[in-house]
Design brief:
alpha+beta; helicase activity; nucleotide-binding; 6 helices; 183 residues
Length: 183
Protein backbone atom coordinates (compact mmCIF):
# COMPACT_ATOMS: atom_id res chain seq x y z
CA UNK A 1 0.00 0.00 0.00
CA UNK A 2 1.36 3.40 -1.00
CA UNK A 3 0.49 5.15 2.28
CA UNK A 4 2.45 2.58 4.25
CA UNK A 5 5.44 3.22 1.98
CA UNK A 6 5.19 6.98 2.62
CA UNK A 7 5.11 6.38 6.38
CA UNK A 8 8.08 4.00 6.13
CA UNK A 9 10.03 6.58 4.11
CA UNK A 10 9.22 9.28 6.67
CA UNK A 11 10.44 7.07 9.51
CA UNK A 12 13.63 6.30 7.58
CA UNK A 13 14.15 10.01 6.89
CA UNK A 14 13.81 10.83 10.60
CA UNK A 15 16.26 8.06 11.51
CA UNK A 16 18.78 9.08 8.83
CA UNK A 17 18.67 12.76 9.83
CA UNK A 18 19.02 11.88 13.52
CA UNK A 19 22.06 9.72 12.83
CA UNK A 20 23.66 12.31 10.50
CA UNK A 21 23.18 15.16 12.99
CA UNK A 22 24.78 13.21 15.81
CA UNK A 23 27.65 12.03 13.61
CA UNK A 24 28.35 15.64 12.65
CA UNK A 25 28.18 16.77 16.29
CA UNK A 26 30.49 13.98 17.49
CA UNK A 27 32.89 14.78 14.66
CA UNK A 28 33.26 18.32 16.03
CA UNK A 29 33.49 17.13 19.63
CA UNK A 30 36.29 14.67 18.81
CA UNK A 31 38.57 17.23 17.13
CA UNK A 32 41.59 18.46 19.10
CA UNK A 33 40.66 21.43 21.28
CA UNK A 34 43.35 23.71 19.85
CA UNK A 35 42.07 23.04 16.33
CA UNK A 36 38.48 23.82 17.35
CA UNK A 37 39.54 27.04 19.07
CA UNK A 38 41.53 28.15 16.02
CA UNK A 39 38.66 27.40 13.61
CA UNK A 40 36.00 28.96 15.83
CA UNK A 41 34.22 25.66 16.50
CA UNK A 42 34.81 26.06 20.23
CA UNK A 43 34.88 29.12 22.49
CA UNK A 44 37.19 29.55 25.44
CA UNK A 45 35.30 30.66 28.55
CA UNK A 46 37.18 32.59 31.27
CA UNK A 47 34.46 32.74 33.90
CA UNK A 48 30.93 31.43 34.50
CA UNK A 49 28.49 33.04 36.92
CA UNK A 50 24.98 31.92 37.83
CA UNK A 51 22.35 34.58 37.05
CA UNK A 52 19.04 33.60 38.58
CA UNK A 53 17.53 30.17 38.36
CA UNK A 54 17.96 29.44 34.65
CA UNK A 55 20.74 31.67 33.34
CA UNK A 56 24.50 31.79 33.28
CA UNK A 57 26.59 34.86 32.53
CA UNK A 58 29.62 33.63 30.63
CA UNK A 59 32.77 35.74 30.18
CA UNK A 60 34.47 34.85 26.90
CA UNK A 61 38.13 34.14 26.27
CA UNK A 62 40.26 35.68 23.51
CA UNK A 63 39.39 33.47 20.55
CA UNK A 64 36.62 34.25 18.07
CA UNK A 65 33.95 31.62 17.57
CA UNK A 66 31.08 30.99 15.18
CA UNK A 67 28.51 30.97 17.97
CA UNK A 68 25.66 33.48 17.81
CA UNK A 69 22.44 34.25 19.67
CA UNK A 70 20.08 31.30 19.50
CA UNK A 71 22.83 28.68 19.21
CA UNK A 72 22.70 25.69 21.53
CA UNK A 73 25.93 25.00 23.40
CA UNK A 74 27.42 22.77 26.05
CA UNK A 75 30.10 23.76 28.55
CA UNK A 76 32.94 21.36 29.32
CA UNK A 77 36.54 21.17 30.52
CA UNK A 78 38.00 19.99 27.21
CA UNK A 79 36.26 16.78 26.22
CA UNK A 80 32.53 17.23 25.59
CA UNK A 81 32.10 13.63 24.48
CA UNK A 82 33.17 12.48 27.96
CA UNK A 83 31.54 15.06 30.23
CA UNK A 84 29.37 18.07 29.56
CA UNK A 85 29.00 20.15 32.71
CA UNK A 86 26.17 22.17 31.16
CA UNK A 87 24.05 20.70 28.38
CA UNK A 88 21.65 22.30 25.92
CA UNK A 89 22.34 25.88 26.93
CA UNK A 90 21.04 28.52 24.54
CA UNK A 91 22.84 31.79 23.93
CA UNK A 92 20.10 34.36 24.59
CA UNK A 93 22.20 37.51 24.32
CA UNK A 94 25.76 38.36 23.42
CA UNK A 95 27.70 41.44 24.36
CA UNK A 96 31.27 42.25 23.44
CA UNK A 97 32.88 39.68 25.74
CA UNK A 98 29.90 38.00 27.44
CA UNK A 99 27.04 35.65 26.70
CA UNK A 100 23.83 35.25 28.61
CA UNK A 101 23.06 31.54 28.40
CA UNK A 102 19.66 30.08 29.24
CA UNK A 103 19.76 26.58 30.71
CA UNK A 104 17.04 24.18 31.74
CA UNK A 105 18.65 23.45 35.07
CA UNK A 106 21.90 24.29 36.78
CA UNK A 107 23.72 21.64 38.76
CA UNK A 108 25.70 23.59 41.37
CA UNK A 109 28.33 20.88 41.69
CA UNK A 110 28.98 20.88 37.93
CA UNK A 111 28.95 24.67 37.93
CA UNK A 112 31.70 24.77 40.59
CA UNK A 113 33.94 22.69 38.31
CA UNK A 114 33.71 25.20 35.42
CA UNK A 115 33.26 28.51 37.24
CA UNK A 116 36.85 29.66 36.65
CA UNK A 117 37.15 28.53 33.04
CA UNK A 118 35.90 26.03 30.52
CA UNK A 119 34.98 25.70 26.84
CA UNK A 120 31.78 25.94 24.83
CA UNK A 121 31.04 23.55 21.98
CA UNK A 122 27.92 23.08 19.89
CA UNK A 123 25.19 20.94 21.42
CA UNK A 124 21.87 19.60 20.27
CA UNK A 125 18.52 18.46 21.53
CA UNK A 126 17.29 15.01 20.57
CA UNK A 127 13.96 15.66 18.87
CA UNK A 128 13.64 12.15 17.42
CA UNK A 129 11.16 10.96 20.09
CA UNK A 130 8.83 13.84 19.18
CA UNK A 131 9.03 13.05 15.46
CA UNK A 132 8.47 9.35 16.16
CA UNK A 133 5.42 10.18 18.27
CA UNK A 134 4.04 12.48 15.56
CA UNK A 135 4.45 9.75 12.95
CA UNK A 136 2.75 7.24 15.26
CA UNK A 137 -0.16 9.66 15.68
CA UNK A 138 -0.40 10.15 11.92
CA UNK A 139 -0.49 6.38 11.42
CA UNK A 140 -3.09 5.82 14.15
CA UNK A 141 -5.47 8.73 13.56
CA UNK A 142 -8.24 8.95 11.01
CA UNK A 143 -7.06 12.39 9.86
CA UNK A 144 -3.53 11.11 9.52
CA UNK A 145 -4.58 8.16 7.37
CA UNK A 146 -7.23 10.02 5.34
CA UNK A 147 -5.60 13.45 4.92
CA UNK A 148 -1.94 13.75 5.97
CA UNK A 149 -0.51 10.57 4.42
CA UNK A 150 -2.50 10.89 1.18
CA UNK A 151 -1.40 14.53 0.93
CA UNK A 152 2.25 13.56 1.39
CA UNK A 153 1.83 10.75 -1.15
CA UNK A 154 0.36 13.17 -3.68
CA UNK A 155 -2.94 11.27 -3.64
CA UNK A 156 -5.18 13.90 -2.04
CA UNK A 157 -7.29 16.03 -4.36
CA UNK A 158 -6.59 19.57 -3.22
CA UNK A 159 -8.08 21.28 -6.27
CA UNK A 160 -11.54 21.76 -4.79
CA UNK A 161 -13.10 23.85 -2.06
CA UNK A 162 -16.08 23.23 0.15
CA UNK A 163 -18.33 25.95 -1.23
CA UNK A 164 -20.66 26.04 1.79
CA UNK A 165 -17.73 26.51 4.18
CA UNK A 166 -16.19 29.13 1.91
CA UNK A 167 -19.45 31.08 1.62
CA UNK A 168 -20.02 30.91 5.39
CA UNK A 169 -16.50 32.22 6.07
CA UNK A 170 -16.95 35.03 3.54
CA UNK A 171 -20.27 36.05 5.14
CA UNK A 172 -18.68 36.03 8.60
CA UNK A 173 -15.76 38.16 7.39
CA UNK A 174 -18.17 40.66 5.85
CA UNK A 175 -20.18 40.84 9.10
CA UNK A 176 -16.95 41.60 10.97
CA UNK A 177 -16.24 44.50 8.65
CA UNK A 178 -13.30 42.95 6.82
CA UNK A 179 -12.66 44.04 3.24
CA UNK A 180 -12.21 41.63 0.35
CA UNK A 181 -8.42 41.42 0.77
CA UNK A 182 -8.66 40.78 4.52
CA UNK A 183 -11.32 38.13 4.12
Amino acid sequence: MELRRVLTELRKFVEDEHRANYEKLYEVWEKPLTQKLTKGESQQIRYVRKEGQNHLLVTLGQNESRFREGDMICLHLGEPSKKRHVQQGTIEAENEDEWLVRVHQIDDENLQEIISGCYADPDTMDLKPFYDKALDEIAESKRGREIVLPLLAGKLDTGFIFEDDYDEAADFAEECGLNEHQA
